[in-house]
Specification:
Blueprint (H helix, E strand, L loop, with lengths): L9 E7 L3 E8 L4 E9 L10 H17 L6 E4 L5 E4 L20 H8 L1 H8 L8 H6 L3 H6 L2 E4 H10 L4 E2 H4 L5 E2 L4 E2 L1 H6 L10 E2 L4 E5 L2 E4 L5 H7 L8 E5 L2 E8 L6 H5 L3 E4 L5 E8 L2 H6 L8 H9 L21 H9 L7 H21 L14 E4 L6 H11 L3 E3 L4 H14 L10
Parallel strand pairs: 1-4, 4-12, 7-10, 13-17, 17-18
Antiparallel strand pairs: 1-2, 2-3, 5-6, 8-9, 11-12, 13-14, 14-16, 15-16
C-alpha cells in the first residue's frame, strides 16, 4: 500500500515463534495486518532447529509479501537466547541448538562458579537453564573454534538476507551476557565461559538499518519477540502485561532495572525494551504445556481443548508451571498428570482446566505480589493479555476473578505489530515513541 505521492507505507514483519513462524504485511500508520505465510515447526530429534527449512520458509513468506504489493522495509524478531555460529566464510558451523536441549541441565555448576548474586547484579537476568550464557559455556569446543561470529537468531536471519553481522539490544538482553551498567557485552563473563568477546558484534538499537534484501531495506527491530510485542502496547505507568504464547511473560515497563535482592530471589528478569527502558518480568510456562499434551490426545485443536476445559469444574488442583520438569519432558501428559496427582487417563478437558488454572494461579501471584511494588498500597490499574493466549476467554476470566483486576484482551498479533511499529519509526512513517516512564 502507498501513501501520498506514491509513498510506500507497508512493511513486512517476520515473526518467528518457537512453535510457528509468521510473515505479515503491515500497513502503517493504520496498523492493518495481513498474515501472508505461516509455518509450524519444532526442534529436530537431535535437539537443533531445522534451520535451512526455517530460512526457506522465511524467504517464501517474503516473496509472497512482495508479490502482494510494494514494501518499504523488512524487520525480524524471534524467541530469545538461541544463537548460531558463523565461520570465516559467513556460513553456519552447524544448525542452532534449541533452548529446550538438555545439554544445559547442569547449569547450576556454572552458576556456583560465577556466583549467583554477582551474576544477577551484573546482568539482571533471571536464572533459566537455557540462558545463552549456559548454552555457550557447554557448547562443543570444536564448533566454537571454527566460529568467527556468535549471532542471536533475529540477527542471524538478517544475516541470511543481507550478509551483514549485527547484534540488537533486546535480543542481546536475553543472553545473561550483557552488563547492565555499560549496556554492552560483559568481557569478564564471556572470558569466564571460554568465549572470545570479539565473536560478538557491537550492540545496536532497534531501528538501525542493516542492509537490503532484493532492494528492500532491512531494519533491526525488537529482535526478542516479547520486546516487539510490548512495543505495540500503549501501557499506562502502572499497567501490567501478560505476553501469552509458548511462554507467559508477566511484567511491566519501567525506566531502570530492578536489582534488589527480593527481585533476584523471586527470579525476575530485567529485559531491554525495544523503545528504551526495561521490561521487568517473570517467565512462566504457557501454552507449551497444553501443546505438549496434544499429541497423546490425537492433536485436537487447542481452541477446542480450551472450550471443553471451560465447561468442566476445577477441583482445585494446581501444578507449579515454573518447574523445570516441564522444560523438555519425554512425555508431557505423563509429567503434568503426575505433578497434579491425576491418572494419565484423565479426560483432556480436566487436564487442560488444571493447566489453565495453574497458569492463572502463577500469573496472579506475580501480579499481586512482586508487580505490586513500588505500589504496595495500590493494585495495578489494569492487565493486558497479548499474543495467542489473548484468545482464551477462560484464562482472562479466571485471572480477573482471582486478582480483582481489570483484564483486557490485546492484539493476538502484537509481536508483528510492534515489529512493524519500530520499522515505521525508522522510516518516519509512524511517530517516535519511548517506553513508559
Amino acid at each position: 500500500m502507498t501513501g501520498g505521492a506514491g509513498e510506500v507505507t507497508t512493511v513486512v514483519a517476520v515473526d518467528f515463534g518457537a512453535a510457528s513462524i509468521r510473515v505479515c504485511r503491515v500497513d502503517l500508520p493504520s496498523a492493518r495486518l495481513e498474515v501472508v505465510h505461516r509455518h509450524a515447526h519444532q526442534p529436530t530429534p537431535d535437539g537443533r532447529w531445522d534451520w535451512d527449512r526455517l530460512v526457506d520458509e522465511m524467504i517464501r513468506g517474503l516473496q509472497l509479501a512482495r508479490a502482494a504489493g510494494p514494501v518499504a522495509s523488512i524487520g525480524i524478531d524471534t524467541w530469545g537466547v538461541d544463537y548460531g555460529l558463523l565461520d570465516a566464510d559467513g556460513r553456519l558451523v552447524a544448525p542452532p541448538f534449541s533452548y529446550r536441549h538438555p545439554r544445559t541441565d547442569g547449569y547450576r555448576t556454572i552458576v556456583d562458579r560465577l556466583g549467583e548474586v554477582a551474576l544477577y547484579r551484573t546482568t539482571g537476568v533471571q536464572l533459566q537453564p537455557f540462558n545463552t550464557l549456559f548454552q555457550l559455556a557447554v557448547h562443543d569446543r570444536a564448533e566454537l573454534a571454527r566460529a568467527r561470529h556468535v549471532v542471536l537468531l533475529p540477527e542471524l536471519l538478517a544475516h541470511h538476507l543481507t550478509g551483514e553481522v549485527h547484534a540488537e539490544r533486546t535480543s542481546a538482553g536475553t543472553t545473561a551476557l550483557v552488563d547492565l551498567a555499560t549496556g554492552d557485552w560483559s568481557p569478564a563473563l564471556l572470558e569466564a565461559i571460554g568465549v572470545d568477546p570479539m565473536l560478538l558484534a557491537p550492540i545496536e538499537a532497534a531501528g538501525t538499518r542493516v542492509g537490503t534484501w532484493e532492494g528492500v531495506p532491512v531494519h533491526l527491530v525488537g529482535g526478542h519477540d516479547t520486546a516487539s510485542a510490548v512495543a505495540a502496547l500503549d501501557l499506562g505507568p502502572r499497567a501490567a502485561f501478560v505476553s501469552a504464547g509458548t511462554w507467559m511473560l508477566v511484567g511491566r515497563e519501567q525506566p531502570a532495572p530492578e536489582l534488589a535482592e527480593w527481585a533476584r530471589l523471586a527470579n525476575f528478569t530485567n529485559e531491554a525494551g525495544a523503545l528504551g527502558g526495561i521490561r521487568f518480568l517473570k517467565n512462566l510456562a504457557g501454552s507449551w504445556l497444553i501443546e505438549g499434551c496434544r499429541p497423546a490426545w490425537g492433536d485436537p485443536p487447542i481452541d477446542d481443548l480450551l472450550a471443553a476445559a471451560a465447561a468442566v469444574e476445577h477441583d482445585g488442583t494446581i501444578v507449579d508451571v515454573t518447574d523445570t520438569r516441564f522444560l523438555h519432558p519425554d512425555d508431557m501428559l505423563g509429567e503434568v498428570t503426575r505433578a497434579a496427582g491425576l491418572p494419565r487417563s484423565t479426560p483432556p478437558p480436566v487436564v487442560v482446566r488444571t493447566i489453565v488454572e495453574s497458569m492463572v494461579d502463577a500469573t496472579a501471584r506475580v501480579l499481586l505480589s512482586s508487580l505490586s511494588r513500588p505500589y504496595p498500597a495500590q493494585r495495578r490499574q489494569n492487565v493486558e493479555v497479548i499474543g495467542g493466549g489473548a484468545r482464551s476467554a477462560l484464562y482472562r476470566r479466571r485471572l480477573a476473578e482471582q486478582t480483582g483486576l481489570p483484564v483486557a484482551a490485546g492484539p493476538v498479533e502484537a509481536t508483528a505489530l510492534g515489529n512493524a511499529l519500530v520499522q515505521g519509526m525508522a522510516l518516519g512513517l509512524t511517530p517516535e515513541r519511548t517506553a513508559t516512564r
